[in-house]
Structure to design on (574 residues):
């Protein structure tokens, strides 16, 4: 099994800790002097750059959340002048505001490096054809894979998302050996291949790198059987860098985190205390090499646990388990992040309805579906079908333009959506994840 | 001349219509006419009932979205040409018809329609000597 960067990926752990501590000190110094947000928070906690000497001191620092990124929209947390920023990405927005991330030239190079590790983890090399069906654009998926693919010298096919018929044609004609997309799209493609009566022997696919949404071991088995490939789980989030934060190796026993760039902790999401090794909790990352948007103790909201023992592949980097869920109510629909509160704020802006709603998520033919049930407001109801259909269309259009996600809207009778005394139940997720 | 029609929003779910009819029946509300307009997800139930105000309160108390809508009712011989005549009177004046339904009673038919302009429609139909039915008479049929 090849390893892209043996020096860092197989480093002895005490040596790695020294590297991490040194990089952490540099990062803390940078954010303290360049980002008022971090300086103010550290000063409020009575901390200076000298308070953080090793990774053992990290717990003293306050957390950073998605809300902090929104509050400082768009570039408020950047730690370099804009002239140093060579790329900006953004993730889907809440109430109209996306989460914006910026990269310096060195950040792009770091990203390419960790993506090269990811692809090498999956067994890809310069002889491979990488068919990238992740979306290109503000989303980090497409370009992240793209740069990593070029870095290892593979032939990159930047197909981007959608247009399944063209995907199939290119898979056959160009002979992609590595497929990169969301796991649900991989399953969707496998069925499209069957329907199009494409002979599996006409495809050269060998392995897939799948991420950007939660998926189960059952889904993995199904993808592996149907596409006759090895399905590798990859993990990343745009705030930290994008894809490339962690990846399974061919042993498929946990995802190796590129620890010399992203330092992980597991915390109890309620007490916010750091949990001992092996315990399940919320994953928190501190970036220790990033220049454009360094993040200190960023709460991912993903629930998982960490294992530090050496992997059979030879890597010594810590492994995280497949994410088991989230510590907030964020949904991931076809790779797009969605909070129920986003839906609520769209509904609140419409005088015709009251925000009594229920989101029903399901997976039909391997694609996520999202249905919104909204109660018809008695004061609005006027006996006309056209009026109701117009309302339905309007809700659908407003949601789609704000969330960037197609949602089927169903009008339901008043008082049929369950009221509860405490936290209202806003989501039914029928996907078996 | 204006009839208060009871309109009810219904999801396309089995048992909903039954529930409405049972609720009205248990309070001795009589139904003269009934029509359902539906789409794949929801429908609107429209009824001429013996006591529209009371019927509305009954359904409202049971959390239905209800509305009293002004419609017109015409008595005409049970032949298609009379129905056509009614519609033509209105379309000539560019009064549009939102919807219409009818039922027959012996030799005669009762046409119910909702137009874009109820007052103008009544005036025009009267001018053509159409037989408009009074609310009190219609509720009694």
């Amino acid at each position: 099994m090849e390893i892209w960067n043996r020096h860092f990926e197989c480093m002895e752990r005490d040596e790695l800790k020294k590297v991490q501590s040194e990089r952490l000190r540099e990062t803390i110094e940078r954010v303290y002097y360049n980002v008022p947000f971090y300086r103010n928070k550290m000063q409020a906690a009575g901390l200076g750059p000298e308070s953080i000497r090793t990774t053992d001191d990290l717990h003293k620092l306050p957390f950073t959340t998605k809300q902090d990124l929104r509050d400082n929209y768009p570039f408020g947390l950047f730690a370099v002048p804009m002239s140093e920023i060579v790329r900006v990405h953004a993730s889907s927005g809440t109430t109209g505001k996306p989460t914006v991330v910026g990269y310096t030239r060195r950040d792009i190079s770091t990203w390419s490096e960790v993506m090269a590790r990811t692809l090498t983890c999956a067994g890809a090399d310069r002889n491979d054809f990488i068919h990238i069906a992740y979306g290109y654009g503000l989303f980090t998926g497409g370009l992240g894979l793209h740069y990593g693919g070029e870095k290892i010298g593979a032939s990159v096919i930047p197909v981007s998302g959608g247009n399944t018929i063209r995907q199939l044609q290119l898979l056959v004609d160009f002979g992609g050996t590595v497929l990169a997309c969301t796991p649900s799209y991989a399953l969707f493609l496998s069925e499209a291949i069957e329907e199009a009566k494409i002979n599996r022997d006409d495809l050269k696919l060998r392995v897939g790198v799948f991420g950007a949404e939660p998926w189960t071991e059952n889904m993995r088995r199904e993808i592996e059987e149907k596409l006759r490939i090895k399905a590798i789980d990859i993990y990343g989030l745009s705030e930290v860098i994008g894809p490339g934060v962690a990846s399974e190796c061919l042993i498929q026993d946990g995802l190796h985190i590129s620890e010399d760039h992203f330092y992980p902790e597991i915390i109890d999401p309620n007490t916010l205390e750091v949990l001992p090794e092996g315990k399940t909790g919320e994953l928190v990352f501190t970036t220790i090499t990033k220049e454009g948007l360094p993040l200190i103790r960023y709460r991912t909201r993903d629930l998982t646990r960490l294992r530090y023992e050496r992997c059979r592949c030879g890597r010594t980097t810590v492994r995280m388990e497949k994410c088991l869920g989230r510590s907030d109510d964020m949904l991931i629909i076809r790779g797009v992040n969605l909070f129920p509160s986003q839906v609520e704020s769209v509904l609140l802006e419409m005088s015709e309805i009251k925000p009594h709603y229920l989101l029903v998520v399901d997976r039909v033919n391997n694609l996520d579906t999202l249905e919104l049930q909204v109660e018809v407001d008695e004061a609005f109801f006027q006996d006309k079908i056209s009026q109701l259909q117009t309302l339905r269309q309007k809700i659908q259009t407003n949601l789609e333009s704000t969330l960037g996600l197609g949602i089927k809207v169903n009008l339901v009778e008043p008082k049929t959506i369950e009221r509860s005394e405490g936290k209202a139940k806003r989501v039914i997720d029928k996907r078996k994840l | 001349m204006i009839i208060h029609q009871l309109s009810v929003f219904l999801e396309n779910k089995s048992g909903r219509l039954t529930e409405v009819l049972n609720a009205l029946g248990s309070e001795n509300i009589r139904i003269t006419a009934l029509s359902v307009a539906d789409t794949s997800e929801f429908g609107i139930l429209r009824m001429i009932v013996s006591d529209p105000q009371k019927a509305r309160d009954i359904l409202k108390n049971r959390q239905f979205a209800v509305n009293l809508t002004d419609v017109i009712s015409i008595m005409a011989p049970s032949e298609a040409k009379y129905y056509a005549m009614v519609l033509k009177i209105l379309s000539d004046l560019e009064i549009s018809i939102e919807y219409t339904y009818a039922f027959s009673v012996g030799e005669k038919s009762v046409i119910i329609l909702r137009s874009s302009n109820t007052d103008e429609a009544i005036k025009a139909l009267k001018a053509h000597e159409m037989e408009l039915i009074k609310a009190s008479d219609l509720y009694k049929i």
